[in-house]
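Subject: for your reference before the review

Hello V.,

The reviewers asked for a structural picture of the protein, and I figured it would be easier to keep everything in one thread rather than splitting it across files. Below is the amino acid sequence we used in the manuscript, unchanged from the supplementary table.
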Amino acid sequence: MNNINPPLANLRHELEHMSAHWWWFFLLGALLVICGTCAIIFPAVLVGTSLAVPVILGVLLMVGGVAMIIESFWAGRWSGLLLELLVGLLYVICGFVLVDNPFESALFLTLFISVMFIVMGIFRTVAALMLQFPQWGWALLNGVITFLAGIVIYRSLPEGALWVVGLLIGLEMLFNGWMWVMMAMALRSLHQNTAPAAK
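And here is what came back from the structure prediction:
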């Protein structure tokens, strides 16, 4: 009689698949860390050039979003695919709005980003608690930080400056990137431990 629990077998298969592609998760994390760092630095450097700041932030968001969408498909089928695809689409949409409407008021820009962060934070927190994928604690922390960042931005209205928005976008991307880097390292370790056993 077969005593293998189907959900456990599926989870094991998914972990083996993800661990074989750990470097995709690492590259995504590294790119998001770089974009997040740029999002923090550029608004502080470009103080007074209100047109340049939203355009740069929008481009950084679109680059990160496209990378997340590509990675979600390239890494193959796994339980976090839909969540990562949705977050990537949100990044791209918000980035496009920033680039397409650089003259919009700071009030609209700040309100839009605060809503985006609140929604993404709720998505990530709920997904981390429900799915509990590898390194889900980092995803939970990421979700909580993103949600709180959205609340902070909303409460800064109407005085919130673009450099504050850039700082919080950068922090969100940094935490997101480090979550992927840490998960990639855990998957790499799993891959190294299971490869000899498979042989």
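For the response letter, the relevant points are probably these. The chain has one domain: 13-191. The two ends are 27 Å apart (CA to CA).

Happy to draft the paragraph if you're swamped.

O.
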